[in-house]
Amino acid sequence: MKALSDDELLEELKRRLSINHKTIKDCNDLIKQLVFTNKKLEESEKVISHFISNVTNEIINPFASILGLSNNIVLSKPNDIDKIKSMATLINSEAFNLDFQLNNIFIAAKLEAGEAIVDIYNVNIKDLVNSIIDSFKNEIKKKKLIINTEFLGAFKKNTNPNFKTDPNKVRVIIINLLSNAIKFSNDASEIEIKCSIDDDLFTISVKDHGIDIDKKDQKIIFDRFKRLDNSINDKNRGHGLGLSVSKSLLDILNGKIDVMSDNKLGTTFIATIPDNNSNNEIGDFSNTGNDFLFNDKEKF
Amino acid sequence: MTNEHIIKHYLQPTSIFASDKTSIIQTILGSCVSVCLWDKKLHIGGMNHYMLPFWNGIGLATPKYGNIAIEKLIDKMISYGSLKKDIVAKVFGGGKIIMTSQNKTFQIGSQNVLLAFEMLKNEKIPIVSDNTGGDFGRKIQFHTNTGVVLHKYIENKPIFPTKTH
After folding, report:
1. For residue B34, which residues of chain A lie inside 8 Å, CB to CB?
2. Structural domain span for residue B127
3. What is the CATH number of the domain that holds B117?
4. What is the domain count for chain B?
5. Would you state the torsion angle of the CA atoms of residues B94, B100, B106, B110, taken in this order, to the nearest 10 degrees?
């Protein structure tokens, strides 16, 4: 081994020290990441316990009122028709909400189990969007909301353009966006829905005039079970699953979702879904799976 | 066995398929990774197809992420009666399909592969064969009764032209 001069020795020591500094910095960064992950874990633990208490409020209470109201109808007299009608409306509204919440839970479970399969059909988007808006008509009436729907892009040339996608998944995405818009809208305000098909890309934006979402909160609203206001109250129903379900559904459709909210004029959610034809993810294979031809060398 | 109906399943990205019936599971991989688990005693198997290594807490904890997909696949095998000690694994995919950067940390494919190797090691499931990395996509077909995986490269063309990540 060659002897080092004092200068060389100092150089070498400096070099090693600087490596050490770098290692320490890397370690600190990793520790920061760990602390962050730990915080997330703690939060998710809290979220689970909140979820359980939330289930009582969101599932058992509506069931209790449905049972109570329907019992009242059974016991009512024939000349109480107005009363019966209003009770039936309440039952309908509770059942509608229950159906929506349960659907989200089941879809989330399916997605998390990796059992959600994409089923592609030719979809008439206009009919789909209109039928979803129609299904919310009681909620819309209750809050005296005005829904403005606009169809742009390919809808202008052809009133009923078809689009290749999975209608059930797109339906759930739109239902969640619209339900959120209705939930967070102020009474008698307006919700703007814009749909367009451009270059094999379907875009739907849903704008409400309710509360706006802080920039820092915009990152966490897609976390599952995350609700910005955790109090259990009438305005704030649901499990905090809607946006995370929508995000994951868009993931498997190769779409994306953006949120815009920085002008104190409410919030806009924009979902974009590519036509299934234009996405080559499965190359030259059909969805149902063609036969593969292999030779012996390709056995593992 | 000869008259048994064989289930043919095309595995879509981010999903999992396992069955206690004789099945042929096929999928196409770019930078994604598939782990095939096979029970050498029961002669049953399952496969996942994940796109990214770790779930970041955004959206649902779906098998789009390797750490979730591998755990769920093992759970599924166990639910069909497999014992962990009888399970062997084969790992495929993780090609460098998206030409982004020379920087290794940006190569999703190699991260995906690394995660599979690490996780299976921690779970003490032996990897009996693998074909990963490279600049190409792959078609694979897993025969769950024999544990054989047929594997073919596909030409180097952008598999995910619309993908942003």
Report:
1. none
2. 7-154
3. 3.30.1330.200
4. 1
5. 20
